[in-house]
Amino acid sequence: MSAIILDGSMVHYEALGRGRPIIFLHGWVGSWRYWINAMQVASTSFRAYAIDLFGFGDTARDPKQYTIERQAELLNRFLDEMGIGKVAIVGHDLGALVGFQFLKGRFESVDRMMAINVPLEYDIINARMRTAPATELAEWLTARQPDAMTALSDASKVDPVAVSTSMSNLQAGSIFPHVRNFGVPCLFVYGANNPAITVPSQDNTLPMHMHQINLENSGHFPMLDNVSQFNRLLVDFLALDSGVSPSELQMKEEWKRRVR
């Protein structure tokens, strides 16, 4: 286990591979652990880091750090302390919100971002996500599939206050309007069979540097529901030249055939 002390609090992370840095940020259920397969794939070309946010996994519990703004400051401090420059960010639900908050303050430090099943509005979140314990949510969202439950074994470590605080932040106001015009390439990935949130329509209102893809064979955890499909999409997204819109992925017939 690797850890760093930030402002007197322990922050747990894991790292794998060599190359350009990529940061994986988990969501409301679980910890860094469900990124293991994606980290292994990314590590062939990247230095992959996965961080436990405050109140999750093996990172310290501290209610003063549970706002989305403070979680984004965790990422900010982590990058500075580790001497990490421009990064790619892959965030899942809460992790994507934290990534957007970080982007709001340091967009020049982000090369690209993948936002997975991110609720851009509070009202699209299923009420069960707001109130049920993380262990119950893990069972519900994975239909108790053994491999997925193993990947989400840290759900028992989730501090419910960390969940409710960030939910309240989102209810108070959306982060997305502040970051959509920064020009950072962003791919939104949604599982079409996701009971946790209402999947936004693909209505062409996103700016040119942003794009949405819905994965038909996935739910709330695409990285667990269909590992090979998700990893192929991740690799293709990371392989795009810097600054290129992820809408270019739609033009790759090979990728489209493989994910049908």
Task: Summarize the structure in words.
This protein is 37% helix and 19% strand. It has helices at 36-42, 68-82, 94-106, 127-131, 134-142, 146-151, 160-172, 176-179, 222-225, 227-239, 253-259; strands spanning 2-6, 9-16, 20-25, 46-51, 87-92, 110-116, 186-191, 210-215. An eight-stranded mixed β-sheet has the order 1-2-4-3-5-6-7-8, sandwiched between helices. With 260 residues, it is of the alpha/beta class. Helix 2 packs across helix 3. The chain has a single domain (2-259), classed as Alpha/Beta hydrolase fold, catalytic domain (Rossmann fold, 3-Layer(aba) Sandwich), CATH 3.40.50.1820. The chain starts with a strand and ends with a helix. The longest helix is centred in the N-terminal third of the chain and has 15 residues, at 68-82. It is built from eleven helices and eight strands. The model is unreliable at 253-260 (pLDDT under 50).
